[in-house]
Each structure stands twice: as C-alpha cells, then as structure tokens.
Specification:
The protein is mainly alpha-helical. It folds into 3 domains: about 20-140, no CATH class; about 150-195; about 210-245, no CATH class. It has 9 helices and 5 strands, in the order ααααααββααβββα. The protein has helices at about 25-35, 55-75, 90-100, 105-120, 130-140, 155-170, 180-195, 200-205, 240-245; strands spanning about 170-175, 175, 215, 220-225, 235-240. The protein has a 3-stranded antiparallel sheet with strand order 3-4-5, with no helix packed on it. A hairpin with a 2-residue loop joins strand 1 (about 170-175) and strand 2 (about 175). Helix 2 packs across helix 4 (about 105-120).
Length: about 250
C-alpha cells in the first residue's frame, strides 16, 4: 500500500517558532478561543473547553496556531475569511504535506486530529468528520518503524543508573566534584528513579521534597496526585533501599 505522504525531507529547526502565538491570531479567532475556556461561579455558564486539562488546551492551541502560521506563509488572504470557511480540503492537504516535510506520517495524522479537536470547539456547528477521515487514512498508510530493538528492561535501566552514579563519584578536581561528574550522577539517579517509578517528564521535573518525595520511616516514597496523572489516578511508588540511599 503506497503511503499518502512522503517521508520527511529535512530536519525541523527548533530555534524557529512554527506556531503563531495567540496574541498574533486574527481578532475573531482570539476572542472565540478565549471564550472557550471561560470559567465562573455556579451561576455562570462555562465555556465548552473549560473542562480540558491545561496540557490538552496547550496542544490544541499550538496546532491551531501552526495552522494559522501556515496560512500566513502560503495564503495570507485566507485569514480574512470566516474561521470555518477558511478550512478547505485543498488547504488541509497542502498543510499535511507541509507538516510532512519535518514529521513522520503518524505525527502528521496526530496533529490533524488535534486540529480537528480545536475546530470542533471553535466551529461546533460544522461537521469535521472529513478531517478525521483524512487523518485516519494517513495513519493507515503510514510506514511503521519497529522500536523493538531499542527496548530495554527496567532491570537494565536500573543497573545503568547506578553505573552512571558510580562514575560520577569517581573524578575529583581540587577536592571538589566536577560539573560533569555531578551531571553524570544526576542522569544516573534520574534513570534509576524512572526505572522503578515511571512518570512523564513534566511530573519528573515538578518533584518537590516533602510533597512528591516523602520519607516514611527509613523508606522514600514517590507520590503523584490524581490531578498530575494522565488517567486522573493517584500513584505511589516505594523506592528500593539502595535508591533511597542515593537520594
């Protein structure tokens, strides 16, 4: 089966912003977007997107901003059209090929799904099923890349973490630990921690002593509140004594 989109032809330049910031959107789009997330007391009507998690809202905003940025570069006159009218099949096809220059097909399909999610909120009176069909067609014909050869067991990662921590404790410079040694130890500690307490990067970066990292007796426990997990379930991990000593 022939893929719908060609493979990426260039690497994305991470230093260049590809999504139009909210404050640079057309005024009508800005107002419609902000209205989606309005909240109030029990007597006020909430916006249709008020229930969405911050991360989901950010993803939708970034993809819609990227769609607007694409129009700015290719068909700036399209921004003068009504929000729902400027979304045509021809433009979506061009947008998909634009995304495919730096993204694999499954990633392109994912971004089209998020764009549809944004449009279902911004123009709820229109039928966006055709956009989902395009995304599904791209996914169905995407070339699958096996990652099995890259998989590592938790035991391997745990061992690697302690190997790096041991390497970080070795080099000394004028009686002090060098910066590189400290970074090596830190990386090893993170790898070992994630091997026994898997979590998203955002959760890892937000760990704080006493709240997310708690010491109970002689053991360390990692706590994740329901509001911090993707499935809205609180999680708790009891760390092995060896890892507790490293902490």
């Amino acid at each position: 089966m022939v893929p719908v989109l060609p493979p990426p032809c260039r690497k994305a330049n991470r230093r260049i912003r590809v999504s139009l910031r909210l404050e640079h959107w057309p005024t009508a789009d800005q107002e419609a977007w902000c209205a989606l997330f309005t909240t109030g007391d029990m007597f006020d009507e909430k916006g249709p997107g008020a229930h969405l998690a911050d991360r989901t809202r950010t993803s939708l905003e970034n993809v819609y901003g990227r769609w607007l940025a694409f129009l700015v570069r290719t068909e700036p006159h399209g921004l003068d059209e009504a929000l729902g009218e400027r979304i045509t099949r021809e433009r979506i096809v061009s947008f998909a090929h634009h995304l495919a220059e730096t993204n694999i097909a499954t990633s392109v399909a994912g971004q089209l799904r998020f764009l549809r999610g944004a449009l279902r909120l911004l123009a709820a009176d229109q039928d966006w099923a055709w956009l989902l069909t395009i995304a599904k067609r791209i996914e169905a014909r995407a070339e699958r890349r096996s990652k099995r050869h890259r998989l590592r067991t938790s035991d391997e990662l745990f061992a690697l973490g302690f190997q790096l921590m041991q390497e970080g404790e070795v080099p000394l410079e004028d009686g002090r630990i060098t910066k590189q040694a400290a970074l090596t130890y830190r990386d090893g500690l993170i790898i070992a921690l994630l091997a026994v307490a898997p979590m998203r990067r955002r959760n890892l970066a937000g760990r704080t002593l006493g709240q997310h990292l708690q010491r109970v007796g002689g053991s360390w426990i990692v706590m994740l509140k329901a509001s911090e997990t993707k499935n809205r379930r609180a999680l708790g991990y009891s760390l092995p004594a060896r890892l507790g000593s490293a902490l």
